[in-house]
Every structure is written in C-alpha cells, then in structure tokens.
Amino acid sequence: MPQTADDLDAVAVRTWCSLALDALGREREAIDAINVYPVADGDTGTNLYLTAESAAAAVEAVFAAHETGTSVPSTADAVRAMAHGALIGARGNSGTILAQLLRGMAGVLAEDPGDRAGAERLRLALSRAAASAREAVAHPVEGTVLTVATAAAEAAGRTEAGAGAGAVARAAYEGARIALEATPGQLAVLGRAGVVDAGGRGLVAVLGALVEAVSGRAPERVYEDRDAPVPVAAALGDCPVPEDPQDGPAFEVIYLLEAGDEAVERLRARLDALGDSLVVVGGDGLWNVHVHVDDAGAAVEAGVEAGRPYRIRITHFAADRLHARPEPAQRAVVVVVPGDGLGGLCAEAGATTVLARPGEPPASGELVDAIRRAHAREVVLLPNDADLRHTAAAAAEQARAEGIRVALIPTRAAVQGIAALAVHEADRSFDEDVVAMTAAAGATRYAELAVAERQSWTMAGICQTGDILGLIDGDVAVIGQDVPTMARSVLDRMLAAGGELVTLVLGEDIPDALAATLEEHVREGYLAVDTVVYRGGHQCAPLLIGVE
Asked: pLDDT (tens digit, 9 = 90+) per residue, 404-421?
C-alpha cells in the first residue's frame, strides 16, 4: 500500500522499488519494441526490469534483516541498498545508466540527518542523479535517457519552495514525460524510426512509481501496456535503422570491477579508445563497466589491469554464435520449486529446477541461467507462483533473444506445475505439448496451509500469530489452530466442486501419518477420487494441495 506522508522514508523507498518493478514489468515488451539506440537489439525494457529487480531485491533483504525486531531500516540504509542492488545487477546500457541515476539520488538522500527526506532533499537528489549519470557516460548524446533525466531534475527544481515531496516528484515526472516526447526531434535515429527513446520511456515509468510512492496517487499512464507512441512495428519494418547490430561493434561487454578511482580513470580512457557506448558507474571501490567493442578480450584485459573484474558478461550482437557448442536437445522443461523434495521429483521427471527459498524468489537472471542450463531449442517455463509473472516473462524474453523458443505457462502454484509436468511429452509438437500442459495446469485448483506470522486481516477474518491459514487459489479461506483439522476443511471445500485426483505435498515437519489420515478422509468421503502424496522437503510449506 503506497504511503501518503508526502515524503521519502525507508518504507516509501521500498514501495518505490516495488512499484517501479511492476511498472517496468508492464511496459517491458513495449520498451523493447522501440529500442533502436544505441543498438537496435530490442532489450532495453528487459535490461531496465532486471536492474530494477536487483535494486528491489536488495531493499527487501534489508527489510528482512529487521523482521525479528520492531524497527524498520533507516532511510539511508534503504537507499544505499537500492543503489547497491542496481549497481551489481545493472544490465545493458540503459540499466547501467539507471543504476547511476539511483546511486546519485542515494548519495543525497543518505546524507539527510533525519529519517524522512522532504521536498528540498528530493530536488537535490534528482539534480545529483542527472549530473552523475552524464558524468558516467563517455560521450553524452541528447535525445536519450540523459536528456529525460536532466529535464526531470530541472522541472523538480522549479517547484515552489513550499511544495511537498509529492509535488516535486510529480513535477519531475511531468518534466520527464514532456522531454521524452521531444526525443525523436533530437536524435535522428529516433525520428527516422518514429519512436521515443526507449531508456527515457523506462525512466518515465520509474518516476511515475516515485510519484505514487511518496503521494499515494499514481500519475495518469501515458502509454498502455501494449501500445507504443507510434505504430512501432510498421516504423521499424519500413525505415532503415543505421544502428544495426551488424554495423557497430560486435560485442557488448559488462563486468563488475573492484578498483580505485585512479585506475578507473585510466580504464575509461582505454575502453573509450577500444569501442563506444562506454558507461562506467559506481564508486567507493566497486564499479559496473559497460562498453561495446569488437575485441571483447581486450576490454576484459583492461579491467584486469585496472583491478579485479568479475561477473563478466559478453554478448555477441550477431545472431550466430562464435563458438560451437554441443548439439542442444529439442525440448526441456524448467520448473521453479518451493522445496528440495519437489526439486528431486521434478529432476527425476527430466526437468531443470530452480529452488525458490522462503522470502527469496528467484530473479530473472536465475531463470535465464536455468533455461541456458537446460540446453534445448525449445523450453517450457513453469514459474509456479503468481508473483513471478513479470520475472518469468522477462527471463523468457531474454532467452528468446538468444534464439531459444520459450513458452511460459503461467502456473500459480507448485501443484499446477506438477500437473503440467505429468502430461509433458517431448515427442509431440511443441505447440501441442504446451497446450496439453497448460490445460493440465489450468484444471488444477491449488491450496496450501501456512502459519500466520503476525496478526492481520484476511478474507476469512482476523488471524493471530501462529494460526494455521488455509489458502485456496491464493486467498485465505479458513483459519484454525491445527494442521489436520485445517487440511480436512480445505479438502472438503475444494472437493465440494468435484475432482478426480488429489495431490498432497508434505512439508518437512509433517508426519506421514497425516498423509494416511487425509487419504482415508478422501477415500471415505469422495468416491472415485484418487490421492497421490509427495514429500516437499526443506523450505516447503506445511502442506500443498492440488485437486484436478
């Protein structure tokens, strides 16, 4: 729930990160579609999403560290975590610049002696952000996200002295939006393609999230999810785009670097001579380096001479690959699982698994790595969590850009993933397999038992700390005191609508005797309904239930 205190504290920073991630998730495909500068590789929206995802995860980790106490993190802790997360997770040219914008803001907001940043501090933060981003880019170009950031800072600076932080944020948003619309007239490649700058559009989305976080009211959305400012597909299909991946440098090189300031200055000069699109962001000994070059090895060697490079990512802009790899399999399934027991079960069925730890959902990068590990031409991705929809979509899009055919089945629970995997047949056509797996998942209702961590309102009434909650299709349906009684109650509610198969997944601390009791309950009360039982293992919820 966005806060409405009209200032920026740790909770507002957390809200901002969450809202920005949602906004970039909604607009990711549209932003990718208008990405023609500096390279028309169609990944700006995805890179911005991945960068914001890393920032949000870092902030959540800070809040998780305070869960055992009654206090929340300080504003300084939250903004520093946001900036650090963006820095270490920055992807692509646009993501690297966004990381520096957030770092510039954090440098000001963390200096506030109080624990709430007001209007004046926000004006200074936006100004510092725009300036530091320009400094990080070797050759700033107008009509890009840098122009949009500068316009946002200038508009914020023109707000009246008595304005609140919400008014400052809204002014920045409006200034950015107006500047974005002008970008096709400032950068020739945008004008020829008939699109606004992709990175700038992403920044407008991030600033819109800031408005909602500090004021509680979202600004009117300029673009719908699937709409670009002009018919982009037609524009790109009919207009030549000079910045084709084949025309410029062959490689994008990104790495984190541990090095001192003087060494980084020498590195900037060397990389500037090697290629273009050079962006070096960071400070205090940790940097994120991004450059487009023809000699990827030389770019990495320059980093080695400057300090210690790691998390090195080299992307070849051409569609073909330079090095031969073993022949990939035709098809694979990638499954997110909530426990090691289910991980073993899915692995036995031939799936590649990603473990979702409590409070630590997998990031898009983890899903992309799993898709690559599967090493197949076609991949079916089962996220098994409604909250992973944007994350999984971003991972699928990135994998598609690498030439992998990916079908994302929006499974909302592990039992739906089990049902989908049970009907998977690699021998039939990809489309037929996806349809069958989707149908099996869709025909599976899901439920789980969980332990309430605090007193709160639910759809079933007020729960107390330690209560057992019975959730059906994601909503709390019943509240009770013990697992066996709640399990029977949830089963009865689900089977009242019919069913042929019950799937029970037991958590680590649930005895086998409960499974036998529930099997007997189903057998005696519901004719012709079968029951299967699996062990979820460590980290799994006390009980997962599926009814097909």
From this structure: 999 999 999 999 999 999
